[in-house]
Amino acid sequence: MRGTTSVGCAVAVAVFVAGWPALSSAQQDRPAASSEHTTDQRAVHEQAEPTTPIPPITDADRVAAFPAVEPPALGDDAVHTLIVLDQLEWQWDQSEVGLNWDAKGWVGGDRNRLRFRAESQADGGRLDDAEAHVLYGRAMTRWWDVVVGVRQDVRPGPAQTWAAFGVQGLAPYWFEVEATGYVSNGGQTAVRLEADYELLLTNRLMLRPLVELNLYGKSHVERGIGSGLSSTDIGVRMRYEVRREVAPYVGVTWNNTFGETRELAEASGDAVSRLRLVAGQRLWH
Q: What is the distance between the alpha carbons of residues 56 and 58, in angstroms, rounded to a whole number?
């Protein structure tokens, strides 16, 4: 057994000694090949570099790349018409059922338009509130119009005529805004602020919150109006556009009175605050 082991060790030593020159030669050739590959990559990179350096960017280059673009000019040649029956709705609360409608529209061009607004409120078969505006509007910027004209109140109380002036348009974040001041033939003053927003839930389903505030400079007892903040109207309506021109909706409104107007309503037995469910139709042409 000991002899066999000695023979095996002698064979292993002989094989290692015979293969050592080949292994040393391979290890010496490998760095040479790697060095040749690195040299080739460096030569290719040097050939790819531009012979002429790229000049730095100047102000003239920036102006040429991003020229000032003028906004499209407002034309006023063609005459167009828009009529929107914004609210045509039934309203329910614990005491009675009412009918409300609100319409707006205009005729004219891009810059000059004749506008109208009309709205009324009927409760229990009687007309409680009705008014109409006729306004001339002129576009002063791309998003805002200045309006002047006349407002005529039919209800409540005796009829009253107001001179109207204000602005309307599209505020940042896509809020539709109307801000109108009034001076009546009796020397009274008033301000109305209205804002709404259309939240697109789907291509046809829209949620529309609306806020309206009415302020008066002095009291008018015959019409049940007090000075200061008189009333607010807050509503949320969700509509589904069967077509763009036809959109049924449902929602809720909250009408509230304040200050002296609230006291006059309490004295006459009228509601000072109303929370109502509404259902109606929005139409435009």
A: 6
